[in-house]
From TrEMBL:
Domain of life: Bacteria
Organism per entry: Leucobacter komagatae
Bilayer-spanning residue ranges: none
Gene Ontology, cellular component aspect: cytosol
This protein's name: Aldo/keto reductase
Length: 337
C-alpha cells in the first residue's frame, strides 16, 4: 500500500504517489479504461488525485469526477488547477484574474461532482494580473469552503516568497508547488527547494519518469515504439522532445543494472528517486492501463542507499539538467489564448 506524507506546513496528508490525469483522461484513453485505472489506484491505496480544468479542455475533470463517484469524499484528496485557456478561450477565459478564478473553481466543482477541492492550484504565474488580486480571490474561495488549501505550479523561488507573504497576510495557507522534477530534470534543487523548505511549502512533482524516458523503453538510434507517448501528439509528445537525444537515452540505458542491483524496475527506481527528496510530498503518476499502477506504487516507502544514489549520478553524468535559470522560463510572459 502507499505511504502518506504531510503537504507543506499543514496537517493535510496526501498519498506520496498521487494519481494525475494530465494526458490520459478524455485524451489518450477512453472513459471506461480511465475508470479502471482510477479504481486500480484506489485499490492500491492511492487517495490523492490531481487534475486541472485545462486538461482535455475541461473534459478530464468530468472523467475523474465520474470515476470517483460513490467514493467516500472524506477519504479522498482532490487537487485541481486554473490558469490556462479553457472553454471558448475568450479574453477572460484564462489567467489568474478574480473573474477567471471564480468561474474556474465553480466549473471545476461542478465537473468533479464535489462541494470542495482539497487543494486549488495556480497552474502558472500570471504576469498580467496583480498578485494581490489573485491571492484575494484564493482567500475568498477558501473562506467560502470551496477549497481547503492553496497551491501553485512551476513558480520561481521569488514568486513563492511573494505569494506566501500575501497568503499569510490574508490568513490562508499556501502549502505546495507543482514543478517538473526527475533524475534528468533537477532545476528546482538550487533555488526553489531551499525557498520552499524555508516557507513550509512542499513539492508535488510531475513527470518523475521524464515523460516515460526513464522507463528505458526508448533506445538510442532506434525508432520510437508504436503507440508510445513520443509518437502521440495528444499525449504530450512535444514535452518529451528535449529528452529524445541519443546521448541522454544512452545514459538512461546505463540505469538498468542500477535498478536491477536495487531489486527495482526502472519506473520504480525513477519514482523512488524523487521521493528521496524530503521536500517532495508526492510524485504524480499517470496510467493508461491498471497494471502500470501495480508496478509504480511499489516505489512507495523505498529508501535508496547512498551507493545507489551515487550509481545513478554516475550513470547519468552530464545529461542531467540542473540549471536553476530554467525555472524562470516556464510561465508565459503574456496570457495564452
Amino acid at each position: 500500500m502507499v505511504n502518506y506524507r504531510y503537504l507543506g506546513n499543514s496537517g493535510l496528508k496526501v498519498s506520496e504517489i498521487t494519481y494525475g490525469n494530465w494526458v490520459t483522461h478524455a485524451s489518450q484513453v477512453g472513459d471506461e479504461a480511465a475508470v479502471k485505472t482510477v479504481h486500480a489506484a484506489l485499490d492500491a491505496g492511492i487517495t490523492s488525485f490531481d487534475t486541472a480544468d485545462s486538461y482535455a479542455n475541461q473534459a478530464a475533470e468530468v472523467v475523474l469526477g465520474n470515476a470517483l463517484s460513490g467514493q467516500r469524499r472524506e477519504g479522498l484528496e482532490i487537487f485541481t488547477k486554473c490558469y490556462f485557456p479553457v472553454g471558448a478561450k475568450g479574453p477572460n477565459d484564462t489567467g489568474l484574474s478574480r473573474k477567471h478564478i471564480f468561474e474556474s473553481i465553480n466549473g471545476s466543482l461542478q465537473r468533479l461532482g464535489t462541494d470542495y477541492v482539497d487543494l486549488y492550484q495556480a497552474h502558472r504565474f500570471d504576469y498580467e494580473t496583480p498578485l494581490e488580486e489573485t491571492f484575494q480571490a484564493f482567500a475568498d474561495i477558501v473562506r467560502q469552503g470551496k477549497a481547503l488549501y492553496i497551491g501553485v505550479s512551476e513558480w520561481t523561488a521569488e514568486q513563492l516568497r511573494e505569494g506566501h507573504a500575501l497568503a499569510q497576510q490574508l490568513g490562508v495557507q499556501l502549502i505546495s508547488n507543482q514543478p517538473q522534477y526527475s533524475m534528468l530534470w533537477r532545476v528546482i534543487e538550487e533555488k526553489v527547494v531551499p525557498a520552499s523548505e524555508e516557507l513550509g511549502i512542499s513539492q508535488i512533482v510531475w513527470s518523475p519518469m521524464a515523460q516515460g524516458v526513464l522507463s528505458g523503453k526508448y533506445l538510442p538510434g532506434a525508432d520510437r515504439p508504436e503507440g508510445s507517448r513520443a509518437t502521440d501528439p495528444h499525449s504530450g509528445s512535444r514535452f518529451i522532445e528535449s529528452f529524445m537525444r541519443d546521448d541522454l537515452l544512452d545514459a538512461v540505458q546505463r540505469l538498468k543494472p542500477v535498478a536491477q542491483e536495487a531489486g527495482l524496475t526502472m519506473p520504480q527506481l525513477a519514482i523512488a528517486w524523487v521521493l528521496q527528496n524530503p521536500n517532495v510530498s508526492a510524485a504524480l503518476v499517470g496510467a493508461s492501463r491498471p497494471e502500470q499502477l501495480a508496478d509504480t506504487v511499489k516505489a512507495s516507502g523505498i529508501t535508496l542507499d547512498a551507493d545507489t544514489l551515487t550509481a545513478i549520478d554516475d550513470a547519468l553524468g552530464t545529461v542531467v539538467n540542473r540549471d536553476a535559470e530554467d525555472t524562470y522560463n516556464v510561465a508565459p510572459r503574456t496570457r495564452l489564448s
